[in-house]
Structure formats: C-alpha cells, structure tokens
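Hi Y.,

Following your request, here is the sequence exactly as I used it, all 200 residues.
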Amino acid sequence: MFRFLLVCIIFLNSISAHPVVFKNGKVFWVSQSTKFNDLRLGISKTNKWLIGGRILQDRRSDETFALLNNNYLAKRWNSKNAQANIYILSSVGINTKNSESMGTVGVHGDWENRQLMVMQMFEYFSHNSSWMSGSRLAYSPYTVDYTKMSTWLIAEYQVEYKDNNLSYMFIPVVRLFKNNYLFEVGSNGDDSFLSFMIHF
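Below is the corresponding structure, written out as tokens. Let me know if you'd prefer a different format.
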C-alpha cells in the first residue's frame, strides 16, 4: 500500500491541454495511443466547469465505453508571465458490449509561461482497476503572438500501475498550436501518440 501511495504522489501527470475553456466554449478532442482511442466533445458551462460526452476504447482489452465527462477547475494562479492550474477530472458511463458500469477519476496540474510548460495528471480506470500517470516537460524554442503557429517540444513519461505491477514508457512529442487548434504527434519507435483538439 505504501508503494502505491508513493507512486500516486510522485507520478502526477498530464496527457492533454487545458481541460476547461472559456464560458460557453466548446471542445472537440480526439487522441490515439498504443493503449487508448479517446474521443471527447464538451462545453464549458462556466469558466471553471466543462461537461460533455466521451467515447473511450481500451485497445488492449478491446472494450469501448460511452461516458459522461466532467472537468472542474479547482484552482488557478496567475502571474504577470505565467499561469498554473489544478483540475479535477471524472467520467462515468457503461461498457458498450455488456452495459457494465465504468468510471474514471483524476487530477490534472499544469504550469506554463510562453516558453516552458510542466503538465501532470493522474487517472484511475475502474474497468481494470488501473492507475495511469504520466509527466510532461515542454519547451518552445521561440515565442510568437496568438495569430502565429506555436511549436512545443515535449518529453512525456508515462507510468501504469495494474495488478501490482508498474510499467513505464517515455515518448517524445511535438505540439503545434495556432488560434484554437492544437495538434500533437509522438513516437518512440514502439509506441505512438496522435492528438487533435479544437476550441470553438
């Protein structure tokens, strides 16, 4: 139990951009990795709360889940040149094959300025009692205004705790961001990652 708690504390991580956008803003997000296909559509009811639908496919077990998704901004810190956030994440729904219930719960934290970014998230999946975590450290080699393309070079480290075993993965990712569009692609030779997000 102590080992598990230690893993929880150390390996908070992130796999996504900000989970809540401006009030009444909508988000479409699709991502594919070695472990999951994830499709989400949501609307920010306030500047702190996003609700929406989520289709999550576990590629290893070939199970698909239809979920109601909630993201809540618990705390934000603003400074002159940087911002930090903590989000509470949750999903609840059913397995599309057998109608068994399924849920996720997580915590997301990030800090960024115009050239550096640290993102962390930790998420529990009830269908296989697994804990997923990953950490991101990102660097933008140049700064641009909002109308131009921003490029981020990201080092992502993922950890999975399942059946009393830990598995690890490192993957480099490139993020391209312009206006309301975000695209990410990454690969380490064995595993790959692809993500597209739009705010509107």
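The chain is about 5% helix and 65% strand.

Thanks again,
Q.
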